[in-house]
TrEMBL record:
<dbReference type="GO" id="GO:0008897">
    <property type="term" value="F:holo-[acyl-carrier-protein] synthase activity"/>
</dbReference>
<dbReference type="InterPro" id="IPR037143">
    <property type="entry name" value="4-PPantetheinyl_Trfase_dom_sf"/>
</dbReference>
<keyword id="KW-0808">Transferase</keyword>
<protein>
    <submittedName>
        <fullName>4-phosphopantetheinyl transferase family protein</fullName>
    </submittedName>
</protein>
<dbReference type="GO" id="GO:0000287">
    <property type="term" value="F:magnesium ion binding"/>
</dbReference>
Length: 109
């Protein structure tokens, strides 16, 4: 499992936005937090090239080139931050997340 949290006010540099362009259907911060959570779950951290990550359209799943598939759930936290949790099997981790809208349990859409 990998987790990333970024402030919603964080700006993503133009260079990173360009690298994230293949993930175009996602906004930059959502794509960045998904990348960081998956990179941590994968074990390579920022050594995982962004270009090796592909979003599977219409789902919360992402595929690493030559590797595994990960589910990613995003939630906005009460601290005005965006949380991404990534895992690589069909069963989501058991956790409760305190969000702006209350307590949330992750699920795979």
């Amino acid at each position: 499992m990998g987790i990333d949290v970024e402030p919603c006010s964080r700006s993503v540099s133009p260079a990173v936005i360009e690298l994230l362009a293949p993930l175009a259907e996602r906004d930059a911060l959502t794509a960045w937090t998904a990348y960081e959570a998956i990179a941590k779950a994968d074990g390579r951290g920022i050594g995982l090239p962004i270009g090796h990550l592909t979003h599977i359209p219409g789902s919360a799943r992402w595929r690493v080139t030559g590797g595994e598939e990960y589910a990613v759930v995003h939630r906005e936290l009460m601290t005005d931050s965006l949380l991404a949790v990534a895992w690589n099997n069909e069963t989501p981790p058991v956790l409760a997340i305190a969000t702006v809208d209350g307590i949330s349990q992750p699920s795979i859409p």
